[in-house]
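Write out this protein's structure.
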Amino acid sequence: MFKYLFTLCFLFSSALMAQEKQVAAVESAVTELVNAMVAGDASRLEKITDSELTYGHSSGLLENQSEFIEALSSGNSNFTEINIENQTVNITGKIALVRHFLIGKTLNKGSGPEPVNLGVLTVWHKKGKSWILLARQAYKR
């Protein structure tokens, strides 16, 4: 009986450690996305986002991957600062749902800096060993 209980505890703790490792990987991908957005780095943004990206702004504007990258890399939409607060990560299989608050500053088409205070839901999917942004929707707080 003790042998079965030990085996069950071992399997449960292994699964929990694997889940924690995946959560850390998703959090790392979110950090990479934020850093690439502030830098306006087109190649990093392309690498961390899916070609089928749907990127929803709090204004209702929807962008695909190329529109999203162009807006940031051209300077039309320029984040000067992004801070993430109250982040949660829920993973089911190869899909991760991330919710957080985005607080920062942006320069849009030369105006600003303007404060940004948004709630955000992002959907990530695992491709190979990487977590890639598939969808994002923001709302005003």
